[in-house]
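Section 5: illustrative case.
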């Protein structure tokens, strides 16, 4: 019965165990600690972000937008690099919501803002950067802006190569994206 309340150092199971594995789940797991809180705050970046992800899963775009906007407001209150990273992640998710809602211009602005922040620490933000570049490429492709789509896929490939070298399995997948 509520063992985590009696033992704060115990860990909750990763949400990825309950859903199909995807880069989005890995992104959430990477930035969200699974250690239970000593107390539950009514508002925090983490809880608002998770609520936004749950709303996305339910395809409730208005609720997802509302929760990611709240997570962005919470990120603005945080100090230092973590606040900037949280803001970038919230903006990236707002970009996804805007893209799904057919608001291409707003989506593009959110993704570009997110990338500008995340690029400052590419090692720590690799997965988030790859997702944002891919989303920008997809958005460009949907708008029939094929040169822009290629540019973003090439930037994604350059990030991969700068962090892991030229010859990797992931690079082959990125090259396949470029070919298509």
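Designed sequence:
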């Amino acid at each position: 019965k509520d063992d985590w309340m009696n033992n704060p150092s115990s860990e909750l199971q990763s949400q990825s165990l309950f859903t199909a594995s995807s880069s989005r789940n890995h992104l959430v797991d990477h930035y969200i600690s699974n250690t239970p809180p000593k107390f539950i705050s009514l508002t925090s970046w983490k809880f608002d972000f998770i609520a936004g992800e749950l709303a996305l899963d339910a395809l409730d775009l208005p609720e997802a937008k509302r929760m990611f906007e709240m997570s962005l407001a919470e990120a603005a209150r945080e100090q230092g690099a973590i606040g900037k990273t949280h803001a970038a992640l919230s903006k990236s998710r707002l970009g996804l919501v805007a893209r799904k809602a057919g608001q291409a211009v707003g989506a593009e602005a959110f993704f570009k803002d997110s990338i500008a922040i995340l690029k400052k620490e590419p090692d720590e933000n690799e997965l988030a950067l790859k997702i944002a570049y891919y989303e920008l490429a997809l958005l460009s492709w949907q708008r029939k802006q094929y040169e822009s789509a290629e540019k973003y896929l090439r930037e994604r490939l350059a990030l991969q190569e700068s962090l892991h070298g030229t010859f990797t399995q992931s690079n082959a997948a990125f090259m396949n994206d470029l070919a298509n």
